[in-house]
Every structure is written in structure tokens, then in C-alpha cells.
Amino acid sequence: MRRLTLNLLAAVLPLFALWATHAVAAARPDSATMAMSAAQATLDPAFGNGGLLALPPERLEPETPVATITAHGDIVLIGGLDLRLLTAAGEPASIYGGQGTLAPPQPEGGEFRPAGVAIDQQGRLLVAGTSYFPPATEVSDATRYSHEVEPASIRLIRYLPNGALDPAFGTGGIVETDLGLGPPRRKGGQPIIEEPSVRATGVAVDAQGRIVVTGGALVGFGESCAHDIFNEVLVSAGFVARLSEDGSLSQGFGRDGIVGGRSLNENPLRAEEVGKPVVAPNGTITYLSTRVDPCSPRYGLAQLTADGRIRKRLGKGGAIRGYFTSLAQEPDGSVVALAGEGWSGKEPYIDRLIRIRPDGARDRTFGHRGRALVKLGHGLGNDTGSVAVDPEGRLLLAGTFANGNGRRMGLIRLSAMGRQELDFGPRGRVTTPFPKLVTVYSVAVTATASMFDPRGRLVTVHRYSTPNGYAPVLARYLLGNLDTAAPGRPPPDSRVALGASIAG
After folding, report:
1. Which of 125, 218, 385, 408 has the smallest CB count inside 10 Å?
2. Are residues 274 and 305 in the same domain?
């Protein structure tokens, strides 16, 4: 009897152990191992000052501060009218012909303001922005109210890795174009000014070397929706344009290489300006609205097929509504989008993440029925502004969090299936104090970019304000087993993991 009992126990115990293993796995289906899940982010002492780098203020604040990382880990960051160049250690870099800074060539009689940077498969640096020219004051034909209209055009500059302007691109490495959109017009069809007013907000380069530019073009006057204001307002229309590798408009895309830019009705979001594009390996373009019709604000995201058709199956009428702030591309072509959910003053701040499959459909296996919600707490100023995807498919949210000691930089991690990893730092987050800045008036602002470098280290970009202007604060984190590229695995593509869209 005793031997029979022992034999039964010997048979049952392995089954119990197997059941227990599956029970734990079912309770935590997205964690590969406890050790991997619990691996926390630590500042990289090899970068800047103990992992942090605060740069001096700049006169002009980019509307969407962006950065990109080269194959060697060097960082290119937009700073005012110039580019800031940093080595992988956070020191001034000698790359693309610059010595710590790079001043793009200016247009004759105008001022060029960079808006986006990208690095293509050949290591060439592409800088996109707007050339602004002396403004002209015009008068509305309906109410006689004066408006200052600023002529502007798109400027693209491409540098070879040795710092020379690329002679195969445009004219001597520069493309200056209004995309064929023409000047803004009055309701009767007469031009308001003789020159177009077209602005760039972002840029991306696809796997074929084609260039995607987003922005907005001034199209004319529209009626104000404010009840106590009777003057007309200037209206823009958002656009997505695609150019060939040589800088000419891609004729196989949209209408003569451009979608939108002529009317608000061309865009499912009715966006006055769009930006932050990411491009999938199959050529699909996903973008956000950054400025919207003031009478009917519609924040959200939309998607175009490789030939420039609106992806109708995406959301309602080809768009998903929400205050989206960041996009990240996954290797299979899926897109992860981050949005704020709003705040009434009672419930905690909440962020929403969704994943869009390569075919344009919502991934219903992600999070809870296709949506992952992250509670940020009740503190005034809690906010995440950027998302990046690590080589394991997990999502890193970079933001700013408030507590009794002021505002701090912070990271939150979710599994590849959209479940928050609560053992990633205290209360599921890793926070870092901002460096001591030069003035007591400085105010920390949320993250504007996050990306993985070729060695799998996470680089985040925040910005702070001072009486002298805005300046970025960079941080680099080591993430457990991801501090170096895994053997046999290609390094993460930082060009598509930038939340503020490396792509601009």
C-alpha cells in the first residue's frame, strides 16, 4: 500500500507541477520570464552626465522636436534653425560636415526652419522643413479684416555621409518646391497672394528610398466659428506627398504625387495640417493630424495605401479619432499609436494605445478588444508623449510624471500584447529627476521623442522652457538584456521607432 501511494504521488506530482507552470503562464501570458519582465531601465553612465544630457536653450522651438540616430549611434537633433550633432557618448559629433552643429543652406531672401530629419538605407541625411519669405498683408474680400499671409515653400536637403550635399538630389542636393499646389485663393477664385504658402511638418524615407513629406498648404479664407467674431479666417489643408529618390514628385502616388493640400474634404480628418508619418515596408503611410478645422476639431490618425488611396477600412470613414501624439512602426508593418484620453478632474489621467495591422485593420488581440489603457495617476501634469517598440516587441512609453518633488522623466512598459508590466520599476514605472537646470523658472515639458539605438539602448528626448527659449534634455537607458544587440538579430530600426516620428 505504501509503495502504491508513493507511485501515485510520483505520477501526480509532475502533473501538478505542469499544471502550476501553465497556471502561472496563463496569469502572465505576455512575460517571457520573470527575470526578463522585471529587468528595469537604468541610466547609461556612458552617455552625457550619468546618462542625462541637457543642451543649451535655443531661440526657436521646433513645432515637433525630432531626432534620429545613425547606424553608429550618433544623434541628429533639430535645434532652432540648425541641427545639433552628438556622438553616441553625448559629445559634439563631427558628422555630415558639421562640428557639433550643422547649419542647413538658407534660401535666397528667406529663412529655412527644419521640421523633420531622416536617414535612409544608404546613410544619407535628409532634412525637411519650410522656407519662409517676407510676409505680405492682405485684406479679406468679405469683412475687410486684415490678415498677414506668409509665402512659404517646402525645402528638402540631402547630405551624403561625408557631409557633402548630394548632387543626385534635386539641384545640388536641394529641392525647393510648392508641390504644384499654387497660391491661396479667395472664394471667387482670385489669388490672395501670388506665391503659395506650403509648410512641412515631417519626413520619412521608405525601403525603396522614396521620400514622404507631410504638412499643410494655405488654401484661402473660411468663416470663423466663434459666435462673437465675424471676420473670416485663413484655412489650410493637410497633405501627404511622396517624392522619388531624386527629389521629383512620384507620379504613381495620389494626384501627381500628393494627397490633400487643396481642400479640407480631401482628408478624412478634415485636417488643416498633418504630420508625424511612418512608412511600412509595403509602402503604407500612417499619419496624424496636428492642426484641425477649428469649427469641427477632429484629432486622429489616418492611413494611405502605397499608391496614395485612403484606407477606408481604418476606423470610421478612413480615420480613427483621438488625441494621438505618437506613432511607432513594428518590423512586420504594424503601427502602434499613442493617444491621451482626456481628463475631467476626477478620474486619473489615462493614455490609450492601439495597434493597426499591416492590412489596415485594428488588431483586436491587442490589449482589451484592441485597446490598451494605461492609468497615469491624478497628478497635474502626468503625461506620456512618445512610444517606441523594443526588439522583443514590447512598448516603452516615455513621459513626464508629477509628484510631491516636482516633475520627473518616466518610462512605462507594456508587453507586446498590450498589458502593462507592473513589475517594471516601482508601481510599474521608472522615473528619473530632471537635471538641475540653469534657472528656477525652467519648466519640464513632456517627452517629444523616443527611439532605440543600434545597440538596443533607449534614447528619450524631453524639452524644458526657460526665459531664454526652449532646450532639449536627452536620456539614455539600459534595459536589462537589451543593452546590446542580440546575436543573430538585426539591430532595431531607430528610424521607425521614434515617437515624434523620425520621420519628423
Report:
1. 408
2. yes
Boundary of a domain, candidates 297, 321, 345: 321
Give the whole-angstrom CA distance, residue 115 versus residue 66. 8
Task: Write out pLDDT tens, residues 52-66.
Answer: 998 887 766 555 557
214 and 115 together in one domain: yes
pLDDT, tens digit, 9 for 90 and up, residues 188-233: 889 999 999 999 999 999 999 999 999 999 999 877 665 555 667 8
Inform me whether the pLDDT recorded for 426 exceeds 90.
no
Indicate whether 364 belongs to any domain. no
Q: Reply yes or no on whether the pLDDT at 479 is more than 70.
A: yes
Place of cell 525630432: 66
Length of the chain: 504
Distance CA 431, CA 474 (A): 14
Number of domain units in the chain: 2
User: Which range marks the domain in which residue 312 is found?
Assistant: 104-321
How many other CB atoms are found less than 10 A from the CB of residue 3? 7
41 and 156 fall within a common domain: no
Which of 176, 123, 53 has its CA nearest to residue 471? 53
Instruction: Give the model confidence (pLDDT) of 325-359 as tens digits.
Output: 899 999 889 999 998 876 656 666 888 999 999 99
Cell of 370: 484592441
Residues 145 and 93 in one domain: no
Q: Using the 8-state DSSP alphabet, how is residue 15 labeled?
A: H
Phi/psi at 470 (nearest 5 deg)?
-110, 150
Model's pTM, two decimal places? 0.85
Answer yes or no: is 359 within a domain: no
Rounded CA separation 498/491 (Å): 15
Q: What is the DSSP letter of 40?
A: P
Whether 167 and 303 map to the same domain: the answer is yes
Residue 376 lies in a domain: no
d(CA 456, CA 444): 26
pLDDT at residue number 328: 94
18-36 CB burial, b ≥16 within 10 A, e <16: eeeeeeeeeeeebbeeeee
